[in-house]
Amino acid sequence: MRTIALPRQNIKFNYDTDIKGSLLNILIAQQIFIESPCGGRSSCGKCKIKHLGGDLPPLSVDEEKRLTQKEIEEGIRLACLIYPETDLEIDIIDQEANHPVLTGGYVPEYQCNPAIWKKPIEITKPTLTDQTPYEVLFKKALAINHLPWDVLRQISMGEGTYTGVFNQDQLIGLEKGDTSELLYGVAVDIGTTTVVTSLINLRTGEEIDSEAAINPQKNFGQDVLTRITYVLDHGKNGRDQLQTAIVDSLNEMIQTMCERRKLSPSLIYEVAIAANCTMMHIVLGVDPLSIGKSPYAPIFVEEKDISAKDIGLTALSSFGRVYCLPAVSSYIGADIVAGAYVAKLHDRKDKVLFIDIGTNGEIVLSNRGKLVSCSCAAGPALEGMNISSGMRAADGAIEEVHFDTEKGFILEVIGDKTPVGLCGSGILAAIRELLKHNFVTVRGNIVKPEELEVGDPRLSYIDLEGKKRRICIGEGPTKILITQGDVRQVQLAKSAILSGFVALVNAMDLTFADLDEVIVAGQFGAHLPVESLVGTGILPKAVKDKITYIGNSSKTGAYLALMSLESRQEMATLAKAFDYLELSVTKGYERLFVECSQFNVK
Amino acid sequence: MAKSKEELLQQLSDCVFEMEDENVADAANEYIDAGYEALDGVLKGLVDGMNRAGQMYEEEEYFVTDLLVCSDAMYNGLEVLKPHLPLDQDADAVNYKCVIGVVEGDTHDIGKNLVRIMLETAGFEVYDLGRDVPLISFVEKAKEVDAQLICLSTLMTTTMPGMKEVVEMLEKEELKDKVKVMIGGGPISQAYCDQINADGYAVNAIGAVTLAKELVGMA
Lengths: 602, 219
What we know:
Shape of chain B: elongated
Oligomer: heterodimer
Number of helices of chain A: 14
Number of domains of chain B: 2
Largest sheet of chain A: 6 strands, mixed
Strand order of the largest sheet of chain A: 11-10-9-12-14-13
Helix content of chain A: 25-40%
CATH superfamily of the largest domain in chain B: Cobalamin-binding domain
Number of strands of chain B: 5
Structural class of chain B: alpha/beta
Largest sheet of chain B: 5 strands, parallel
Shape of chain A: globular
CATH topology of the largest domain in chain B: Rossmann fold
Radius of gyration of chain A: 27 Å
Number of helices of chain B: 9
CATH class of the domain at 184-324 in chain A: Alpha Beta
């Protein structure tokens, strides 16, 4: 038995020395939050801890590579590479406060016809001369042919007022009294990074409350591939851990909303879920492994209508349902089907491009209602990961940057705090300004100070580390620097997304000028102003005036699935109408990628 | 006045280094027409340019895509010079052979292509098996061509275990000492390399060349 203490957080715990694992695994097992975007594969360098006491093995090669000299001197180490051999005293670096997640967005008109509905009935007491079984009385009053066994055992039947609860034409529950006015559902978007839930009054369509949280699976890895790999490494047990993490989180979020609204969770009858394909597999406890390997065939894509308790979702009626929206393929999930539906891509008479920007960028092009899609591995740079001063959108994160030759870099910081680092929108804003003011060339090089004239205002911001040039955009506890490597990371992400964009436009024999609208979806995209999207060349300049935002269209799709059977049907049809372009095997893709890497694509 | 050999070599090198993939053929023709040795044109011209580009890449001055354009220029130049190369050059020299590919389950190959180019530039005889390569193929090909080195690449964490399998196959066939395994790609680290008992990990295409030379004992 050994002890690990985290004095700043006032935590001290013992663990069994039989557990063979890295410090990261030990902390995760204790449910102590620590950043580990790469899932403990020692490739991201974010799981930093400060060594305060106890013995640690010598620095590993990977730590030397991922930590700066200064960090090493301060005793910073990486938790995933440490296998403790004594009691330890440590501190976890980079704890972040939560930042509210955007939940709203545009909602189209729909036909109100929820799958879940209620019917109040009156039952008169049988008599000695007419000993009709209650089953028959209820069946007659409810106008149904069959009364399921699990409904029979839900309540004691007798005379008086009852309310039948239906899922389409199936009776799923019986309640005492007339409860027909009380009918609620929850719309859910499970993103790889964030989870958003909305409590919906199914009678009125009103959104009563919403709740957002960081996806707790991030302890098992930042992106879908690392999580799939976790399952690969840990088998059924790993799959269960990931499922439990997300289901528990959903239960908690629903409970929180109910408490806030003084609503009994038993009045929630359905949870509709939109998510990417991997998240959907995991929440339903289905093996996601095949998604992570060529030929990238998922286990399922069709819609699912199941009992909530079967997946451990308990913060609703005991006979509550879960409806999962349909997907297209491994990398075009239900979230994108929902988005395409909310944007009415199938009904458009013009040419529209829909793009959801995140770790994976999904793009759908509608050429007068004919849909073709692709998915590009942008990597986590756009969300502030793999960036030397990167951080999640939390207090202290720079979210907007402007450069002025007189005043220098003007920073907008979340929470108006001292700047600590850059979140995704901040890094894009910074690169945009660096390009605009020629700190960085169209090929992505930071300018060389020796090529600038004496007195050039740029000179005072160029920070040299040996031969390496960095731009200092501000100062918090430490200098906030944009390195050449950071520019390259954004350049990679931008090349990936833009080349997907161009490949789709080419595949339909169109040009940028032919596009009538470019719709940016997703909660991350909503934080990215047109100037940054175009200024960093993620989207071509030619579409600058055509960009619109649709917000979290994935959750809106889940909302529509709750509220309208017609919408459900249309989404299922829509999912089957998508064509998919696999970029990595598209002819000439490498060449296209090269062209799209320049920062000046028109 | 006609240009000297040195000037023409410099011109070839610069065409590659400065990404002039459209001018390099003219420069190569000029070099041949002037009657100079094709082999020098390749090694002291084109390959020199590619090496300079590689150096810039290592210093973060060149981006991945810049290197790809440089390599286009190099291959365009090679097309012109190749017919003029002596047929049985270096018959006695040791040929360093290497098998490269993206492991089964992954189709992302830009990184692998770059390593292949740099290895070819460095003088390796490279057998590129492409992407999504069945693991056994690496071992079979290495046996068939008598390669000293297998290079495995992947961008996806899900397919990393394939690298371990290749190492194990070599161990099983008692080829591990004869054939070295070098791994690379986004999610790979030195720790993973040690864990699966591979012979080396390189963080980028330039490091890969240095490491490859070291592993096969190339001067």
